[in-house]
Specification:
The structure holds two protein chains of two kinds. Chain A has a single domain, classed as ABC transporter involved in vitamin B12 uptake, BtuC (Orthogonal Bundle), CATH 1.10.3470. Chain A is 73% helix and 1% strand. Chain A starts with a helix and ends in a 5-residue tail after the last helix. The radius of gyration of chain A is 19 Å and the shape is globular. In chain A, helix 1 packs parallel to helix 5 and helix 5 packs across helix 6. The model of chain B has no long low-confidence stretch (mean pLDDT 93). In chain B, the strands form two sheets. Chain B has a six-stranded mixed sheet, sandwiched between helices. Chain B folds into two domains: 169 residues, 3-Layer(aba) Sandwich (Rossmann fold), CATH 3.40.50; 79 residues, no CATH class. Chain B is of the alpha/beta class. Chain B has ten helices and ten strands. Classes of the chains: A mainly alpha, B alpha/beta.
Chain lengths: 285, 259
Amino acid sequence: MNYVLSIVTLAGINMIAVLGLSIFTGFTGLFSFGHAALVGIGAYASAILTYYYFVPFPIALVAGMAASALVSLVIGIPTLRARLRSDYFAIAILGFGEALRVILENLEITNGARGLPGIEPFTTLPIVAGCLAVSVWVASNFLRSRYGAACIAVREDPVAAEMAGINLFRTRLLSLVVSAAFCGLSGGLLAHFLSFIQPVMFTLVQSTALLAAVIAGGMGSITGPLIASFIFIAMPEALRVAQMWRLVAYGLVLVLIMLFRPQGLMGYQELTTFFRRSRNDRPAA
Amino acid sequence: MTGPLLEVKDLTKTFGGIRAVDGLSFAVAPGAITGIIGPNGAGKTTVFNLVTGVYRPDAGSIDFEGRSLLGIRPDQIVGAGIARTFQNIRLFNRRTCLENVLTPLLQKAPYSVPAALLRTPGVRRMDRELREKSRFLLAEMGLEKLADVQASALPYGLQRKLEIARALAMEPRLLLLDEPAAGMNPEESRALSALIEEIRERFNQTILLIEHHMDVVMRVCSHIVVMNFGALLAEGPPEKVRTDEKVLQAYLGKEYRNA
């Protein structure tokens, strides 16, 4: 595949994971230092299915999503129970991410730390574009529904949310499971794009990169994190000529965004709202 | 129903060594506006927090429509028919006025997660109907022109009104208002008194309110509960409470007798 197209494909895959984390962190207001592990679950689950069992690619993708969602349920149920505080979850999933790496490195079916080579490269740019489009559509449907309204209410004020008849635990758990399914899809696409996965691809470093895209793009926005995610994937590639200085540029961009737009690129807005602004931005009477 | 709508008995809550609520008993009659007054720190808001399940009482009972509210979650208590506003306004600040009212309304929409993800025609229709209903509730509070304005951009008095609109969206049978007139000038608080009476008529509401503005309390409440140091100091109709020697001494002040 053409070099530029492969970068765009990779960015698209990453955007799906960022979209998932955005629902959890941007819209529900909970932090996670382990969403890359959920990407990893999806990657390994789907790759194992196509690699050993010759399961058709679409079914393997769905299975990867289901596996991530299921694992998130197992982590979420004990950790999201605390009524008002949910910091426990961020730490629990951090631990889970590191534990997952060790597990993957020691299982036979995952081929240990050497990683799983020779996965069929089923993932193409049109497939990624289609998955991304459907994901954005589904995510925005979710956020417009009663469930999305509950997530945002929990982020804005948990006590007031309860007084609006919202069950904090169920809302947070649902947000996590939905976000995990997106991460699982991203992982399945990633495995069948790179045709090689190994455990170190899904650790804290990647989780932090996902979180950075959500925060830099704007909490409570869908389009902002997607744009940030694209920039963060494309920029290091575009700057390859600058060799190791490109990592400095990456850091610099992050620092500049936090300095000049601490609410993120899009703040709590969508790209579409900028076009409608003049109508809605009348000052309060 | 003949008995009281809400009945609190021997309610006690301690924080460390402080008895915030100390063996308090009172009842709220259906259809009435009942007021809770008392000096700062008397435990009035704590009573609200106990009734709505934010805190768990150490002792005593809280019965709503004859059923105990003890040990159930705040969202279940709201579902049972009690809604409230907060002393230090708690709106969904970064959402519009419409969305603030829509959020509780949506929680009763009976569609499933898969239907929501696909945004089926049924979901669309229900959301549209609830949006209309939200506009209606905003109009009731005189906020219809501000539907698309972010809640945090509203002036203080309107934020209080929006909070009441959001509470009414829960379709409660008992409405708890925590200092609805706080920060209002005499003219605004007069208008608020009228609004509270109107809400009672229009929505057939029973209301329990905490208030420091005596003009509001004496005008709208048919029954007043006076608290001091977490315990009941006096109780009765406004005429009786405003001349009660203990109440004058602890809270209203001697000058009030002549006012």
